[in-house]
Structures are given as structure tokens and as C-alpha cells.
Amino acid sequence: MAVYTESGGDLARLRIDRDAPARRRWVPWLVLLLFIAIVAAMYPSARSYVAERRAPEVDVLRATQVIPSAGGSTARPVLVATGYVVARHSSDVGVKVGGRLSRIAFEEGTRVRRGAVIAEIEHADIDAQLEAARRAVAESEAQLAQMIAARDEDARNVERQRALARDGITTTQALTAAESALAVSQARVKSSEAAIASARARVRVAEEALENTNVRAPFNGVVIKKRAEMGETVSPFGVAGQASREGGAIATIADLAELEVQTEVSENSVAKLGAAMPAEVKLNAYQDRAYRGRLRQIFPSADRAKAIVEVRVSILDADEDVKPEMTASVTFQEVGESSGSGGSGRAARAGGAGTARETGKAGEPGRAGALDPGGPPIVLVSKRAIADRNGQPVVWVMSAGRAQRRAVTLGPDRLDQVEIKSGLVPGEAVIVNPPATLNDGAVVRVKGS
């Protein structure tokens, strides 16, 4: 490298600095090569990402599996409705008189028997009234005894006066006075008897008032909701801060021995239902279990605003896991020889092609119904997943982000689903409403992903 010195001419001042570092001309090329390598490595991923983002969005549902119950019952569903579990016999138990609660003998979950006292209201004033009424009865009874004694004495005096009158010893005036005194005594006896009856009636009124301070269970059941605490002031018409519909209720008692599903059915579908129609009940909390049900009642009136009719379905094999106010779905089934049990014990599962579990005791987790499986599983898929290609029914199965066309053999319809006899495995993801332009092997992505 040439440098200038301080002395000599211009040319003489030029020198070569042999100690200066050499210029690295290869560094820019190295940076360029690294950039090209990074771009080349990222290109497939970026291309895949762009292709995936540009892929059509589809809705996906999984093929489900129905396991027939013992005896091979595969009753076809007629209608599906949702609702809530309720007790057939349920009551908001309230007080008859207002006052402060002095005792509460229940908590949520407490079992009560019909007629048992579950709460009391302070009744010291009524106790005093009852004691006063009982004292009044005793006093009236003592007065009656005196009146009876006086009457008997007046009656004997009348007999003496009559005997003397027959002998001419007494006067008519004396006999008349004795008879008048007897009549007065008899009237006093009747008055005392009436006073005793009145006093006893007041005792009964006080006793009834005392009984009204007791809150008794109307039937055998379980307390499912506690609405008041000891020391609170309650009223038959409710108090400030208490919902008006509760009307002074301090507890809700339900008979859990008779549970049913309260559901609503469209007016257009009521004609599909019949008396005592079998049904299958499933709880949202326990999707792997199915309970036997039977249509108990179709309400005689409809809701004009909603165009629905309320329907009640009894749960025939409810266990301790079935609780009031749980959300439930009801599948009404055809009435026939094979569905007499309402499709009992049948479980529908989403995903997986695993075999059915053997059924144990009712209510055991992971087990469906109360019967052993008795037949080959049935594969169901939404009707919206069925497409037609040259007269052949097909479904589009989504696997590894690509659509695969699969020819299938269809069975009978089941509401908005159809049976697949061959070509599909339970648990596979199928595309619903597939686009007409969809090609086999095309990249697709699930909506919202």
C-alpha cells in the first residue's frame, strides 16, 4: 500500500506499506452464498405454507360408530331433541307465616322424608298464646263444674218444693221461684259448656299457628337447593332480595327416583311422536353413556310464539350420576319388535375404530347403558358428506391435509345421517359439502385453522 512521507518530492514520498492487512474480497461472496442457501432451504416450507394458505377451506366431521345393544337392536332414530333433566316431582318448599328462622335441619343433598320438619320459625309469642288458651280451657272447665253443682242443687230444691206443695205445706210462689232458679242454673251450665268449646277452639287455633311455624317436607326426596339460612327473616310472599318466583321458598326438594328430560319439539315434528315411544337419552356430561327412555307426555298445548310443544321423556335406568338441570339429548326411536327396549345400552362414539367395551354396573364410568353389545358396529356419516361422481356415491376423506376420494356403499338413512356399509372407517375425518371442483389429492384446510 502506498503512503506519503513528510520529506522529498511527491514521487519520493510514495512508499509501500507492507505491514497493512490484505483486502478480503471473498467476504461479500460468502455472504451472498449464505443468503442463497438460506433462501433455498426455506423455499419448500414457504411454498408449502403459501399453498396451504391458498388451499380451499372445508368443513370436516368424523364418521361415528353405533354399537347395537344386546339382541342386535338397531332401531332407527325418528327425531332428536335437546333439553334438561328435571325431577317429575319437585317443589319449592316455603313457609306459611313470616318470621325469623330459628332452626334449619337440612343442607344440599340431605334426604328428607314426607312430613319431617326441616325448618322452624321463632314462635315464643305463639307458645304464650297457646298456654293462655289452655289456661282458659281449664278455667272454663272449673266454672262449668260450679255451674253443674249449682244446677243439681236447684233441681233438688225444685223436687222438695213440689213435694211440699203436694202436702200443702209450701206456697205456689216458692215453687215457682225454685223452678226459675233451676232454669237459670241450666242456662249457666250451657253457657259454661259453650265457653269451654270456644276456649278449646282457641287452643286449636294456637296449635295450628304453632304448627305453621314448622316447615315440613311434602314428600320423600332430596334437597337440591338451599335458599335460606338460619336467622334470616322469611315471608310467604318473599322478602327484599329474594326472587319473586321463589315466593318465600327456603328449599327446593326433588324426588330423584323419577327423573325425566324436559324438551321441546317443533310443531312440524310432533306428528312423528307416539305414546310411550322408546328413546335414548344422553347427557352432555357423560357422552359415552346411553340411558333408556320412554316418552311419558306430550303437553296438550303449544307455545304459539315459538311454535313448539313441550315433551317429557322418562329416564328408565337413571343412576346417581344423572342430576337435575343437566343438559341432555333425546333420540326418539321407531317403535318395533327390535326397539321395544328403546335401544337400551347403545352408545354412539365419535372417532376411533375401537371395539365396544363390556358393560358392567349401571353408572360405571366409560361404560354405556346396562346391556352388553350384541352385533357389529354401524358406521354413520352426515348426509352432507355424500357426493355423487358419475352415479357412484363417494365421500372425501381428509388425511395429512389432502382430500382423498373414497367410494362407499350406502345403507338406510338415520335422520340427517346415513349408514356406510363399506368404504369408510369410524373416526375418519370426512369433508361435508365438498366443492364440485375438488380433485383427488388436492390440498385442503379446515375452516378456522
CATH fold name of the largest domain: Elongation Factor Tu (Ef-tu), domain 3
**What is the name of the CATH class of the largest domain?**
Mainly Beta
Summarize the helix and strand pattern as letters.
EEHEEEEEEEHHEEEEEEEEEEEEEEEEEE
Strand-residue proportion: 25-35%
Mean residue pLDDT: 79
Q: How many beta-strand elements?
A: 27
Number of domains: 5
- Coarse shape: elongated
Query: Strands of the largest sheet, in order across it?
Result: 5-14-17-16-15-18
Task: Summarize it.
This protein has 449 residues and is an alpha+beta fold. Helix content is 25%, strand content 34%.
What does it look like?
With 449 residues, this protein is of the alpha+beta class. It has five domains: 2-54, no CATH class; 58-63 and 378-446, conserved putative lor/sdh protein from methanococcus maripaludis s2 fold (Beta Barrel), CATH 2.40.420; 73-88 and 258-349, Elongation Factor Tu (Ef-tu), domain 3, CATH 2.40.30; 91-120 and 217-252, OB fold (Dihydrolipoamide Acetyltransferase, E2P), CATH 2.40.50; 124-212. The protein has three helices and 27 strands. A six-stranded antiparallel barrel has the order 5-14-17-16-15-18. Mean pLDDT is 79; it is low at 1-5, 69-73 and 337-374.
Architecture blueprint of SSEs:
Layout (H helix, E strand, L loop, with lengths): L1 E2 L11 E2 L10 H28 L2 E6 L1 E4 L9 E11 L2 E5 L4 E6 L6 E2 L4 E5 L2 H44 L4 H41 L1 E3 L4 E6 L6 E2 L14 E6 L4 E8 L11 E6 L2 E18 L4 E8 L11 E7 L13 E4 L27 E5 L4 E3 L2 E8 L2 E6 L1 E6 L2 E6 L6 E4 L12 E2 L3
Parallel strand pairs: 3-27
Antiparallel strand pairs: 1-2, 3-26, 4-19, 4-20, 5-14, 5-18, 6-13, 7-9, 7-12, 8-11, 9-10, 11-13, 14-17, 15-16, 15-18, 16-17, 20-25, 21-22, 22-23, 24-25
